[in-house]
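User: Please fill in residues for this 309-position structure.
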């Protein structure tokens, strides 16, 4: 029975494709984290510069303030002096000093206003960069977690061996059930080969896929009880009904026991010849037939059935 085997392959293939896509997303998200980290470093450096520039500007305001206070005190002293000869020149000089100091203070305050604005902007940039980095890290972690989830799904898929064992057990049940009430109406044709309807789909898929790989297979499937009896005679079995298959010149199952009588065994041919071990057909089937639910009877390289008997 092929269903689970093929389903596993398809599911595994889909999951691997998903993992590849998700890993691509992780790469993208990781580069976004790198970009955000770099942007954060740049913003932090700009904030450091803006902070020291603003500190220096405020120090210059304080200096200008002090200079103005000094100039105003000097003017007050000059006004208080009463010596007429020197008073006029000293007063003019003191007034000019106050005017200059006032102008300098105004200039320094304007400069400090600008550096304060720059500092606020730099602080905002750092906060934005920090937020962007946090989002980028969360996105990258989510992408990495998604990969792990898919990898776990892939890991818990049943192994091909476990599925083959299950399939073999199911196939044995199918054979047992099919022996009761079997008629030729239970058979159908696949490329001229008569097989049981239960295996026709898997068998056709197997031949189609082999041909797609450059291996064209044919063969003989269903045979009647009468034909099996004839074969027992013509293949030199010691008797028709009891002698073991191996005692015949060509191994031939006792009538009623051959899976050919249910259309669930096929004797495969390639290029008109019965399959032997050194053919491309045998090698292809050895590698792939299990996926379609077909197993070889080791003593007969041409004989492939759903239970291997
Ligand atoms: Zn056979």
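Assistant: Residues filled in for all 309 positions:
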């Amino acid at each position: 029975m092929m269903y689970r085997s093929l389903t596993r392959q398809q599911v595994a293939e889909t999951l691997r494709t998903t993992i590849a896509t998700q890993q691509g997303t992780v790469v993208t998200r990781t580069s976004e984290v790198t970009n955000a980290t770099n942007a954060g470093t740049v913003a932090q450096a700009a904030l450091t510069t803006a902070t020291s520039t603003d500190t220096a500007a405020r120090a210059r305001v304080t200096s200008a303030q002090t200079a103005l206070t000094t100039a105003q005190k000097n003017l007050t002293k000059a006004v208080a002096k009463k010596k007429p000869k020197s008073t006029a020149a000293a007063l003019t000089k003191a007034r000019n000093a106050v005017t200059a100091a006032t102008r300098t203070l105004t200039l320094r305050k304007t400069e400090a206003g600008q550096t304060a604005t720059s500092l606020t902007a730099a602080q905002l940039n750092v906060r934005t960069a920090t937020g962007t980095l946090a989002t980028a890290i969360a996105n990258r972690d989510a992408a990495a977690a998604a990969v792990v989830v898919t990898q776990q799904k892939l890991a818990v898929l049943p192994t091909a061996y476990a599925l083959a064992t299950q399939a073999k057990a199911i196939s044995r049940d199918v054979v047992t059930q099919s022996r009761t009430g079997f008629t030729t109406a239970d058979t159908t044709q696949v490329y001229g080969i008569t097989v049981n309807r239960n295996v026709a789909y898997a068998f056709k898929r197997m031949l189609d896929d082999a041909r797609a790989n450059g291996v064209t297979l044919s063969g003989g499937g269903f045979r009647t009880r009468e034909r099996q009896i004839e074969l027992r005679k013509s293949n030199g079995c010691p008797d028709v009904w009891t002698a073991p298959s191996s005692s015949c010149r060509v191994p031939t199952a006792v009538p009623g026991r051959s899976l050919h009588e249910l259309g669930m065994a096929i004797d495969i041919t390639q290029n008109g010849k019965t399959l032997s071990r050194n053919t491309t057909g045998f090698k292809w089937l050895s590698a792939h037939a299990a996926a379609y639910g077909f197993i070889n009877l080791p003593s007969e390289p041409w004989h492939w059935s759903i239970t291997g008997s």
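For context: The pocket of zinc ion is lined by residues 260, 265, 267, 303 (CB under 6 Å).
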